[in-house]
Amino acid sequence: MAGRAIARSNMRAGKRFMSTAGWWSHVTPAPRDPILGVTEAFLADTHPSKVNVGVGAYRNDKGKPVVLQCVREAERRIAGSKFMEYLPMGGSVKFTEFAIRLAYGDEADVLNDKRVASVQTLSGTGACRLFADFQKRFKPESLVYIPIPTCHHNIWRDARVESRLFRYYDPATKGLDFSGLMEDVKNAPSGSFFLLHACAHNPTGVDPSEEQWKEISQLFKEKGHFPLFDMAYQGFASGDTEKDGQAIRIFMNDGHQIACGQSFAKNMGLYGQRVGCLSVICSTPQESVAVKSQLQQIARPMYSNPPLHGAEIVSTILSDPELKDLWHKEVKEMADRIISMREALRFNLEKLGSKLNWQHVTDQIGMFCYSGLTEEQVDRLTREFHVYLTRNGRISMAGVTTGNVEYLANAVHEVSK
Ligand code: PLA
């Protein structure tokens, strides 16, 4: 066929094809994301008193996002950096070295022995997902146990790791279901993986005590379970990054080979920079070299290598004693503001004469208050009061301010009385 005839016949075929159903006509809309969808709904609301206590993103007392001073100073210092080329597949080595020192402590034996494999990840979500893919590849039959309730279980679903649930939160006490947790850990098949939140558990704001962590660690030893720590809030629970690392340190000192996913979204306010770290404690330096190389190989065909800017900010801060001190001070300020808002919310609810017990508002820690409100009550809060939160009743305390706390307390009281 001559060129023009081929073109004409292709066009006819194209027309025929286009008249049939579209390529994606079988695709139905995905459900709205339970957390990020709340922000979308909030942005679409034009009511002047609207309040967003959905996503866990820190706001100052004026309700505005915060750029930390240490971050501004780090940005100023790296502004002259001409380094714009690709990072290695595992990201910035300087960044990961400082990140793991923050997680495990400067003096940790596992660091001196070079037994930690670490790679820079796309924030905390990316760290968990990379580990889930690694688990699937190298322990394909293993299970992951996820706490009830949790928020990021879809990570393991999409990595095709089979998951089970373990008891964590007791709605009756609005605290930890420690005996249920221990029983489920005991009954899980030996060698299971467990997702643990290192501190400031999301969504409940309930953490085990130091003593309880020790008991959990011992039971993990007996059962030969693998702990994966999701550490998205180091510093946000107590205001002290060392104290918030205590669960990691307990497990590490008990000789567990743990994995840890760190996020700098919250504690440095680098949400959109997507800067995180996945580390895996190995039995030998050789094993850690192998593990790191495999983690990189999983990243390579997915996103090739992670972004540069956020990692440079973090390593500039963590490697400079003065900036690091400033950061510690600023993290404490954020944590303290949240604690004072817990007190203010509880105070206002009690002042309004609520008959319910709101002690958990001040007992729980970190960014969230797991209020105990039902889905129907949450729907009323949104519909009648323009207060936006996830349907599980989780209130992001970081969105509460002296300006909106009375309004919020009144709305909560109205739907719960
Ligand atoms: N792990 C926990 C426990 C988290 O709460 C979050 C974020 C992440 C990991 C992931 O954060 P990153 O990828 O941004 O580092 N949780 C948020 C948002 C703030 C979310 O669900 O992604 C939340 O509102 O629950």
TrEMBL record:
This is Uncharacterized protein. It comes from Diphasiastrum complanatum.
